[in-house]
Design a protein that fits this description.
Length: 274
Amino acid sequence: MAQNHCLTTTLLLLTLLLNSCGSAKKVKINAPSTITPSTENVKAKLPETKIKSFENTRKLSVAERVDRYVKTYAEVAQQEMKSYDIPASITLAQGILESGMGDSRLATQANNHFGIKCHREWRGERIYHDDDEKGECFRVYKDPRKSYRDHSLFLTTRSRYDFLFDYKKHDYKAWAKGLKKAGYATDPKYPDKLISLIERYRLDRYDLKKKKTNKETESTPEIALEKVHQVQKGDTLYSISKKYQVDLELIVQENKIENNTIFLGQNLIIPQAK
């Protein structure tokens, strides 16, 4: 009986406690404002023809993220090289490094892919971000391509970078070391990081230019940019080799493919037929 009495008492106390909790005034806790942009905001900042889906960015490997970035901005970097003589490989490597492959706060919220700070002459929008010091001022662009153009102007209008243009446009190692020497970045390993990116992902292939031929009947340039095939659903190495009439083994060797495995969205370099 004593046990039953204790059990009854316990149940009564729990009932009273639950009733009192249910009648308690609810307190609303205001969550802090979101500091990361929504996917829609990120999309809105990209060029209409270059809109990318960032929903699954976290699931991508580093190689896939670099591949995505290069596919989006290689043409822009090549155009800047044509206009300002800055190696496309250097521009792309800096963009990848400075923007975290396009996913950094400065890239997504400010379209700033090169970490260019405001400086005195900047009259546009601004964003504040911790870098060498806390709360530093960085430039905001309406379009990522504006960031690329500003990067070109930044290097060509400041005398401390003048010596870079004495280097050959294909000498990415000299450019990488020269940028550090001129004070573009404070990281002592900055040149090594740029060179590593260029060599690992063969970004120097974007430094190649098409040469015009003197023969009117010859339409193929002496030096042609390599073809790049983006892997689509249903693609196999065999079907790709047949499409471009290139030996399957050459594609494997050119792209250093392991176990003949390719993934959706991957950019494959198609060797030029000889």
